[in-house]
Write a structure and sequence with these properties.
Helix content: over 70%
Strand content: under 5%
Distance between the termini: 47 Å
Number of domains: 1
CATH class: Mainly Alpha
CATH topology: Serine Threonine Protein Phosphatase 5, Tetratricopeptide repeat
Radius of gyration: 18 Å
Oligomer: single chain
Number of helices: 6
Number of strands: 0
Largest sheet: none
Structural class: mainly alpha
Order of helices and strands: HHHHHH
CATH architecture: Alpha Horseshoe
CATH superfamily: Tetratricopeptide repeat domain
Shape: globular
Length: 137
Amino acid sequence: MTRAVLLALTIAVLAAPAAAQALPAFDQTRFYDQPAFDRAIAPYTQAIARNANDARAHYWLGMAYLHMLRLYRFGLAPFAASFAPRAVASLEQSLRLQAAPEVMLALLDAYVLVGAWDKHNALLERVSALARPLPIR
């Protein structure tokens, strides 16, 4: 019984900082005007200001810029014309900090959108090297 209580307390203590710093996911299902977008990315920019090595904040900021870049390409977000380098820079920084698969896939998408085929192909090689081959049956 004492071990179970000690384990529960340890988990609670370790989970508390993570929960306090949890970032909301960027809503990629809606349209934003400039003021709404600025409000939507505020948690990510604030988290980066507090800790420049926050990989998740860089990831979500990059995803936000990437979403707006897609909308810009369809003529739905004229204010997002300059977001391509911001999306790539945020996602590249996230990848430098933590090589997570979702970051790699988002960055591959960003490279396609901006036409950075050399970077895309190099990252694709890196992703392919991580994949385990399926056994032949």
